Structures are given as structure tokens and as C-alpha cells.
Amino acid sequence: MALAGAYDPNLKLFDVILANSVFSESNFALTLNNEICHVVNSSNELNNIIEEVSKEENIEIVKGNTVCTDCFDVYMTDVNKFLERVPDGFNPIGAEMEAFALFYVAKMLNKKASCLMSVVDSKYIKEIATTEERQTGLNKMIKLALDASLKL
């Protein structure tokens, strides 16, 4: 589970994102495993379980690709310059800071990984979730993750 910034104008604060693939400019894979890798995928099996549980519980999710950044996008001097470096056709809907390492380590160890995230800021809106709002605003994501884990 992670917090995310939205890159899709349709996403609102506290919408839940389920990552398909993650792009990172980092050298995490190179440093850890001597592999040049900048895109890694989540587990289709785990994502299918999460999608099934989300439908059962009427928890809306948005599935798509995300980018994993080394700093919060709201602090970037020009987020659009960063987005120009994302591979053509990747079309990220959000940004977070954990999923690439999670997915890459799972791939390396032949394990499964998935990542749910809640939108707490957006490229398209000025609002940013406050600390108080985060205390309850993340409940849908947390409930979905816990309930999906019971189906494993």
C-alpha cells in the first residue's frame, strides 16, 4: 500500500489505484542485481484477486501504470519534464515511491507482488490531503488490501 499523486485528471483525492506496471528512472535494479531495468510488472494473479474483492465490496479502483519517483512530484520544479522521459505509450495514471522496488525484488525472488495506492495529491488539482484526512481517507485501500489478503 502506498500514497500516490494523480496524473490522470479524472482521479480525485482518496481514489484507489491498482498498479499494472511501474516505471522508474532509478538504478535500483542495476545496483541490486546488475540489471538495467526501468519497467517492472505486478502480479496478474494478485491483481485479479484484488479486482474481484473490490467488486464484491463495491470499492471502486482504477487500474493502470504508475511511475516510481525519487521525490514527491509536488516538489519537482517541472513534473512535465519528468513525464517527457517516461517511455512512449506507458501512460502513467499516478506516481508513488515504493512499487518499483517491491515489484523488482518480487521478480528477482520469483514471488508475487501488487500495489494499491490512495491518491493524496494531483497534478490537476490544488488540494492535498491533510494529515487528519489521511487518518480516515485511506480506509478503503486498507480494507481492500486486508480483505484481498484473506483470499490468498
Provide structural commentary:
- The chain is α/β, with parallel strands linked by helices and 152 residues long.
- It has one domain (2-149): 3-Layer(aba) Sandwich (Rossmann fold), CATH 3.40.50.1580.
- Helices cover 35% and strands 23% of the residues.
- It has six helices and six strands, in the order ββαβαβαβαβαα.
- The protein has a five-stranded mixed β-barrel.
- α2 crosses α6.
- The longest helix is centred in the N-terminal third of the chain and has 13 residues, at 44-56.
- It starts with a strand and ends with a helix.
Features of the shown structure:
152 residues; alpha/beta; Rossmann fold; five-stranded mixed β-barrel; 35% helix
| CATH structural fold name | Rossmann fold
Distance between the termini: 17 Å
Number of strand segments: 6
The computed structural class is: alpha/beta
Low-confidence stretches: none
Number of domains: 1
Mean pLDDT: 94
Top CATH class: Alpha Beta
N-to-C SSE string, H for helix and E for strand: EEHEHEHEHEHH
Helix segment count?
6
Structural Rg: 15 Å
In short:
This protein is of the alpha/beta class. The chain is built from six helices and six strands; from the N terminus they run ββαβαβαβαβαα. Strands 1-5-4-2-6 form a five-stranded mixed beta barrel.
